[in-house]
Amino acid sequence: MNIVYFLFAQTLLFAIPLMIVALGGMFSERSGVVNLALEGIMIIGGFSGIFYMNFMQTNDIMHGMPLLFTALLVSAAVGCLFSMLHAFAAVNLRADQTISGTALNMLGPALGIFIAKTLQDGQQNIGFTNEFRISSVPVLSDIPVLGDLFFKNFYITTFIAIAILIISYFFLMKTKTGLRIRSCGENPQAADAAGISVYKIRYLGVGLSGILGGMGGLIYILPISTEFTCSVDGYGFLALAVLIFGNWAPLRIAGAAFFFGITKTLAYAYGSVPFLAHLALPDTVYKLIPYVATLILLAFTSKNSAAPRADGVPYDKSKR
Amino acid sequence: MKNKSAGFFEKDSTKSVISSLIAILIGLLVGLVIILIANPADALEGFLIMLTGGFQEGMLSLGDVLAYSVPVMMTGLSIAFAYKTGEFNIGVPGQYYVGAFVALLIGVKATFLPDAIAWLIAIICGGLAGALWAFVPGILKAKRNVNVVISGIMMNYVGLLLVIRGVKTFIYESTGAQSLTVSTERAIPKFGLDVIFEGSSINFGFVIAVALCIVAWIIMNKTTFGYELKATGFNKDAAKYAGMNETKAVIMSLVIAGLFAGVGGAIAYLGGTGKAIQISEVLPPEGFNGIPVALLGFSNPIGCIFASLFIAYINVGGNYMQSLNIAIEVIDIIVAVIVYFASFTLFIKLMLDKFRNSKKHKTLAAKEGGNK
Amino acid sequence: MDYAIEMLNITKEFPGIKANDNITLQVKEGEIHALLGENGAGKSTLMSILFGLYQPDEGKIKIHGKEVLINDPNDANKYKIGMVHQHFKLVHNFTVLENIILGIEETGLFGKLKNSEARKKVMDLSQRYHLNVDPDAKIEDITVGMQQRVEILKMLFRDNEILIFDEPTAVLTPQEIDELMHIMKELISEGKSIIFITHKLNEIKAVADRCTIIRKGRYVDTVNVADVSKDVLSEKMVGHKVNFIVDKDEAKPTDTVLKVDGLTYQPKGANKPLLNNVSFEVKKGEIVCIAGIDGNGQSELVYNISGIEKPTAGHVYLNGQDITTTSIRERNDSGMAVIPEDRHKHGLVLDYSVAENMILKSYYKPEFEKHGFIDFDAMNAYSDKLIEQYDVRSGEGSKSIARGMSGGNQQKAIVAREIESDSDLLIAVQPTRGLDVGAIEFIHKQIVKHRDSEHAVLLVSLELDEVITVSDRILVMYEGEIVADVNPKDIDVKELGLYMAGSKRGIGYEK
Amino acid sequence: SGSNKKTEIALITDSGGINDKSFNQSAWEAVKEYGEKNDKGYKYYKPASFDDEGYKKQIKSAVKNGAKIVVLPGFKFANAMGDIQEDKTYKDVKFVCIDFTPTKKDAAVDPAENVYCASYKEQQPGYLAGYAAVKDGYTKLGFMGGISLPAVINYGYGYLQGANDAAKELNKKITVNYTYTGTFNESPSIKTQATAWYNGGTEIIFSCGGQICNSVFAAAEDTKKFSIGVDSDQKDDSKTVVTSALKNVKQTVADQITAVYDNKFKGGAYVLDASGSYIGLSSDFSRFKTFKKADYEAEYAKIKDGTTKILTHSDDESAKGNPNKTVKLKAALTNVTVKFEG
Ligand SMILES: Nc1ncnc2c1ncn2[C@@H]1O[C@H](COP(=O)(O)OP(=O)(O)OP(=O)(O)O)[C@@H](O)[C@H]1O
Ligand SMILES: Nc1ncnc2c1ncn2[C@@H]1O[C@H](COP(=O)(O)OP(=O)(O)OP(=O)(O)O)[C@@H](O)[C@H]1O
Ligand SMILES: [Mg+2]
Ligand SMILES: [Mg+2]
Q: Which chain B residues contact residue C364 at CB under 8 A?
């Protein structure tokens, strides 16, 4: 049983940031703006959150949960601000969204490293102390099975992410604003004729991707390191893949993120799964599993992909 | 009203170039402002070094600019080529890397090949390896409708892991945990370029890269094959309806794009500069750096030549800027800003039109006023 | 006089064109006011201004005598103006109900949609006007006629008093048109006012009280419909007399060119065949028309003949050769030309120039290809010739990008390309859809000319007038089957409608 | 970065950068400390391309900018140094090479007199770490190397032999999980692998590869297990760090810079080991349960006088770092079972 808990916890490690960031991308793309910039947004979000954390910790101003929550807010705010660059280009100037997304992907790390180096005398890494892991919740952790799965040795960010998933689903599929976001991604002319401001909705969509992408950057780095090097190791692009894999729908995105998380976990923890360890294959084979499995799965599931119809198409009021 | 200069300024390509220049100008300005904020004392000197760095040491620096432009010229060309047919070839890093690996394998191990042609065969095989790598997303797209972005990302990691495995198995240099490197005898020859650009790392690969860009341009714009590819890129359904084989076009455009990326990898590692494939699980940055090149070059193969030269130029300049206290990441910021403003092309063109029209109106009004 | 709407001296300029030039439109309360004009005359533009989608450069709008500013559709809604757009404004993967409430949603806790009241209102309205819509059906699953009813419901749901119908009948069957007219009259009787745009003069005669005619963006006249004849209307519209009758001689069919034998087509996942054992022939020198209500298998029939889809059973022969499994390219090469139904999707590469589009199906032939390279001089010369011959109008001739041309001219370019390929068989699918009378006349002439020069023509059309005037033989399709083979001379529109609706089958086609 | 004075002390990084938690970082700390204390201009440079040509150009341009001392941390510079030292233009510049001696076309050559080359016997601190861990009661060990470089392999082999010798003394059987992560950067994957080990019973992991320690330490903290640091004393990076296997690059660089300014610099190839103060374990023994400083010193002495012999990478290069395929080593490990993942 222990191994199950362990694999579950590790799966979360990969799946949670991927899911949050992909959900962010979902809002942007469902509103009609392709967001290639997730990697850049994650980096700038992670950077600002860790930078803030570093400041608070080294100056002994704030610690623990309050620090974590405020840091998440900082990441979200900066991610949102950063994504506005993309929104402005994509919405107001009807720019090629691939280009402005790429620009942001370059700008994120460059800006982060530049600021870090300038302020820290050539040092680009920003350290932080991980004081956020909760080893067990009284009462709750005693619940059989669930207690071990969820309430021991976990990060509160896992629950935040699950809450975000539920809220995202509810927001996109059940609320008025969600309906409007979806209409702008499918048929902005129809939305416009219904009296909806396509521009505002798209700003909202991109802004949400900035908020979730920024938070995702921080959530990514917290459990796996003790410093931030202005890199998220391609997870922004993987999140993009998860978004496509998840067919732009919240629950399927969660499924895709978990699929990827599980295969990634098995690729690195095969040693503790007796069946896999027994195969005694070269580690490259295990490491290939997530990517090859995804490719194979995609080959069988892509026939009816549900990309939003107006995804990536600049909205021009005067175009019919 | 229709004089010659007006015609020139109305041409779409002219407007594109003007809007690119505006983007570059804005990028440089932003860069200057950032340096001024970060280090006012060194700012102007640093900025000047960056702008003139490509000539800092004369022909040597210039030769380096040309040499450094090659990998990104090829990865940029790869992205541009696929982009013209409607696909975003994000799988370039993987294609570049397998190309590099196969080329090195041949350069180092295929000793039965005479030195004089080993490099050429290695480049060709590197290109084919890249093509093979792009074939997978191509066929998955054509036959199973798999989004090229996601399959490209997956193939990048598959390529990376396999290349590392391959290096460890076949061409391992254990004291450095990297691949063996190609000896100078078997490296791409310089054919006198080292005399012109003394001391620089340039070799004949630069000529090959430029030639490939030109060939790509000709294929795109002059041949029936290019006509098919572009038609498919613009409108798959119409291409199919007109009897074109749109599946083949998608696969071919990606395969050719992969070939360019593979050749890029091959040239980069066959230069005899001691460049080796590292055993670290990080995708080669040249792959992603091709994206801005393609975008700055308007996905035009000839545009890629200039865009890659520009980026190489300010990177060389940026490297010299290290003598001052300015973090060289400012170069990346500048390039990012330029790419960002390059996305405004449409807007800048509209502005250009407006500006011209209002000038027209003004001159007209002035004339009428004069007549009264 | 009490006007519901007054649009006074409206001017609106688009880059390169004055779409509206000092147009005035006055609509009385409780009337159906027709708006007539050629393609591109500026009707849709004028209405979009009224609906708040565009802002006029000059002019003002009064509602019930009070001047108003309409900045966006929300304002229009405030003044109770509703619009059924020429190109429907529906979200394809939303339900009917979601489309109707979009923009004026009721919400409960946390912004959650509250649809129960809306659903009730929709059901009530649907019943009252006999619209028969299912609020939970997805738009992509319902017919075009049904989609239009959703658009009408959208207006009714918003309690609009001023209703704009922009070419609502272009996509409807005769029966559906009748129903629509009925609904419109009912709405008027409740005191609503309607602006009705159509190219079809008999529809105007049938329902409209008054009619405003515009031409090339300018106001021409407003008339009482009862006082003028169709001829006068059309003359005012195009500026000269129009000939509605297609001049053509008796057909003299000779050899069989196309033979369709037992064609059956059932795509994966469909629970019944979309084409069921279809057999017919088309001979040299005749125009055979496939008539039918939209969605009865006409598109699928063309896809199967032209090679886009592969049939489940049956055969297609061209000049006696079995081409059932050959590629599209081979079919073209062995003598098939197609004017596709959707000109933007299948007919043109909109980002190519006119010249490049002209060789879309022949670029690889020796005339245009030299050692793998395109002979641009030959291409341009050929294109210039066709442009001249078919009067394709565009800014820069062969060099113009197709996207920038008007629909009618895009269509002419396709017609030119396909007819000039000099293929034995020409398949023309709705070749005049949405075009004005002038353009229609021209295209019809070309098709007849093509027939007369020893070619076979298969025409697929939803327009009954076209079906009857152009064809030599009519095959009616209903639910994937041919249900009648009739001579246009022996039949009138009413009867054709019965075949099309499936309530009658022709001789030799009994069940 | 650095000061505004004329740059006399230059450091050139390889692709790792000055935050690599390894030789670049240690060397840079030495440069920086010296520069600040003695008011000398100092700076680090990042080459435009990471190949022999790129390194050479960067060395030249550093000298052009005024460098009198050039610090080159890492074996990547070997070929570049081989060419540079032949160039008489640079005969007045002093070079401090860490972890390598110059080569010409991959064949070793003697360093010139203006070139100081330090290499370390990493197997010795590795040995001490393994010995200490087992002596302290740990029976399930782990070794995570970054990339299978000779230096990393030597740490690992030493670690295994130290563990083995201690196990023999205690008459115990020990298991060691052993892998190279393939990168020097932190990542979720490494954390997962480390956590998997800890979960499978591993009690202590020797993290031997730059920034991968970020992930290994995070895993140790999560599972409340222990770790061993590398190169510099990492006890402040995580409470789980019991000790660190040291290779005092910082000290080396600092000594050589001082030597230059004191005119005592002397080129040549130097192998630094237990006989100097350049290798060992960290001086703080408080995180051990039972292992005492005295035990350590006894073991250290045995290494120093050569009683303890340690096999290294160069005893069987073809194994590419797989201890199970290294015949001699395999035979020597009587009390240790190595579970190799790779
Ligand atoms: N958004 C736009 N941008 C540029 N030109 C436009 C735009 N909308 C309409 N036009 C042009 O303005 C003119 C009037 O167009 P409009 O759609 O109002 O015509 P219409 O009378 O509705 O024609 P139809 O009968 O074909 O629907 C046409 O020439 C059209 O090409
Ligand atoms: N892709 C298409 N394929 C077939 N018919 C179309 C297509 N697009 C539009 N139409 C029909 O053509 C008619 C006019 O379309 P549109 O308003 O776009 O043309 P336009 O710009 O007014 O051109 P023109 O003035 O030459 O007719 C509409 O009634 C519509 O049903
Ligand atoms: Mg129109
Ligand atoms: Mg219209």
A: 224
Per-residue tokens: A188: 């902005």
- Antiparallel, parallel or unpaired: β C193-197 and C210-215: unpaired
Instruction: Find residues 253-282 of chain A whose CB sits inside 8 Å of chain B.
Output: 282
For chain A, positions 290-319, list CB contacts with chain B under 8 A: 290-292, 294-295, 298-300, 302-303, 305, 307
Say if A164 falls within a structural domain.
yes
Say if residues A185 and A309 touch (Cβ distance below 8 Å): yes
List Cα–Cα distances, C11 to C61, C65, C144, in angstroms: 12, 20, 33
Which residues, given as ranges, of chain D have pLDDT below 70? 1-5
CA of C63 from ligand 4 middle (Å) equals 23
Chains in contact with chain A (at least 3 beta-carbon pairs closer than 8 A): B, C, D
Evaluate if pTM is beyond 0.90: no
Which atom of ligand 1 is found nearest the CA of C46? 18
What local confidence, expressed as pLDDT, does residue C322 receive?
95
| CATH assignment of the domain containing A292 | 1.10.3470
A130 vs D19, D195, D218: nearest CB: D218
Nearest bound ligand to the CA of residue C434: 2
Give residue-wise pLDDT tens across range A147-158. 777 787 788 999
- State chain A's maximal CA–CA distance in angstroms: 64
Shortest CA distance from A197: residue in chain C: C72
Domain that holds residue A57: 2-308
In a domain, A319, yes or no: no
Question: Do D237 and A226 touch, CB atoms closer than 8 A?
Answer: yes
State how far the Cα of C156 lies from the Cα of C351, in Å rounded to an integer: 40
CA distances from D282 to C32, D234, D279, D297 (A): 95, 9, 9, 12
Q: Which amino acid is at C453?
A: S
pLDDT, one tens digit per residue, over C378-419 is: 999 999 999 999 888 877 889 988 887 877 788 899 999 999
- Low-confidence stretches of chain B (pLDDT beneath 70): 1-12, 357-372
Out of A95, A118, A244, name the one closest to residue B344 (CB): A95
Quote the CA–CA distance of B88 and B72 in Å, as a whole number. 16
On chain B, the residues whose CB falls within 8 A of the CB of C309 are none
Domains belonging to chain C, first-starting first, are 3-238 (3.40.50.300), 243-335+424-511 (3.40.50.300), 344-422 (no CATH)
The CB of C409 under 6 Å from ligand 2? The reply is: yes
User: What was the pLDDT predicted at B358?
Assistant: 66
Distance (Å, whole) CA D242 – CA D282: 9
Beta bridge partner(s), residue A210: none
Cite the beta strand spans of A37-195 per DSSP E. Answer: 126-127, 133-136, 152-155
Q: What is the complex's ipTM, to 2 decimals? A: 0.86
What is the residue type of D137? G
Closest approach of chain D CAs to the CA of B109, in angstroms? 16
Return the percent helix, strand and coil in chain A, to nearest 5: 75, 5, 25
- CA end-to-end span of chain D, whole Å? 39
- Residues B249-284: tens digit of each pLDDT: 999 999 999 999 999 999 999 998 889 998 888 899
User: In this predicted model, what pLDDT tens digit does every residue of C45-72 receive, in sequence order?
Assistant: 899 999 998 999 999 999 999 999 999 8
- Ligand with smallest separation from the Cα of C214: 1
